[in-house]
Design brief:
InterPro entries: CHAP_dom (IPR007921), Papain-like_cys_pep_sf (IPR038765)
Strand order of the largest sheet: 4-9-5-6-7-8
Strand content: 15-25%
Structural class: alpha+beta
Number of domains: 1
Keywords: Signal
Number of strands: 9
Organism: Streptosporangium oxazolinicum
Protein name: Peptidase C51 domain-containing protein
Shape: globular
Low-confidence stretches: 7-51
Largest sheet: 6 strands, antiparallel
Mean pLDDT: 83
Radius of gyration: 16 Å
Pfam families: CHAP
Length: about 230
């Protein structure tokens, strides 16, 4: 459960919850291109929308997607509890799915590596989050990626980043307690804010290398990405 970025060896491979059908457009931002038109996102230093009537790029894209609630996404994620990696640290359906997507080739080119099969035994917390978004039909507002840091930046750049643990939010952790995106180690879903300084989560690639429900201290949270839900 490291930053999960491909360098030159398969085991160094990524596993971050991803940047939806996100294609980099340089240092000024990203663009969404997922068969629903192209929406340019704001630059990295953009401020959240001030107007209550203004829509973010992700909200605009969501108008063309199925109406999916946070509860539905969490139910789908919960059904994966118990799915476990093999002795090599891979072999899950999340690995297989990610390697089959065009996004794998994009992140491979970005992060380094020889083949999409470098992801076969890679850490997979982000692949899990990305898979849930795909299966729920809301990938363009959930994101898909194999590098947690890049995915968190994508939420931030699209104005969907914050510090409030809401059900269905994508939660990013730094085990050292840091609060910068560059220090992110792991990702999962928020199931519940317990109101006592902890959150209940659903995460892939945790514990013994499986999908589990966990209770985490908010002191280890860097921030939250907010997909667009119907509720």
């Amino acid at each position: 459960m490291t930053k999960h970025r491909l360098i030159s060896t398969p085991r160094a491979a990524c596993a971050v919850l991803g940047a939806c059908a996100v294609l980099a457009t340089g240092t000024t931002g990203v663009a969404l291109a997922d068969g629903h038109g192209v929406v340019n996102a704001p630059p990295a230093d953009a401020k959240p929308q001030d107007s209550k009537t203004a829509k973010t790029p992700l909200q605009i894209v969501a108008e063309r997607l199925p109406k999916v609630s946070a509860e539905q996404v969490l139910n789908l994620a919960s059904k994966q509890i118990g799915v476990r990696e093999n002795a090599q640290g891979g072999g899950t359906k999340f690995h297989s799915w990610y390697m089959s997507t065009p996004r794998a080739k994009e992140t491979l080119a970005r992060d380094g590596g020889n083949s999409v099969y470098d992801y076969a035994n890679a850490p997979w917390c982000a692949m899990f989050v990305s898979w849930v978004g795909e299966m729920a039909g809301i990938r363009p507002t959930m994101g898909w990626d194999a590098y947690t840091v890049a995915h968190a930046r994508w939420f931030r750049n699209n104005g969907h980043w914050g510090t409030t643990p809401t059900p269905g939010a994508v939660v990013y952790f730094d085990w050292a307690g840091g609060k910068t995106i560059d220090g992110i180690d792991h990702v999962g879903f928020v199931k519940k804010d317990n109101g006592d300084g902890t959150i209940t989560t659903i995460e892939g690639n945790t514990g013994n290398g499986d999908v589990e429900q966990r209770v985490r201290p908010v002191s280890q949270v860097v921030g939250y990405g907010y997909p667009v839900y119907s509720n």
